[in-house]
Amino acid sequence: MSLIIDGLSWLLLMCGAFLGISGAVGTVRFPDFYTRVHASSVADTLCAALIILGLILQAGFSLVSVKLIFILAFLWYTSPAASHAMVRAAHFMNVKPYLLNKGKPPSKP
Length: 109
What we know:
Layout: H1 2-29, H2 33-59, H3 63-92
Helix pairs in contact: 1-2, 2-3
């Protein structure tokens, strides 16, 4: 049974690491601010969930797993709210998406 839990835990940890790396690549490669924030926020939320679930399986039923659940709940509430706040601020600052920029690449600051 321990081998199955360890295997499932490592699978979750590796999937979370893959999503974290793909979110970082998307943040670097996408053309404008809105798609970059989308890539990082979606990957960040799911990446954190998978990694913390893998750590909970490694910790077993203990105080550590309860703390990890609280950290996961905190990340699930704050990460989308922070992404929404950044996109809303960019919208109020009139940052235009790439598709509405008439085919021109976004200007570099």
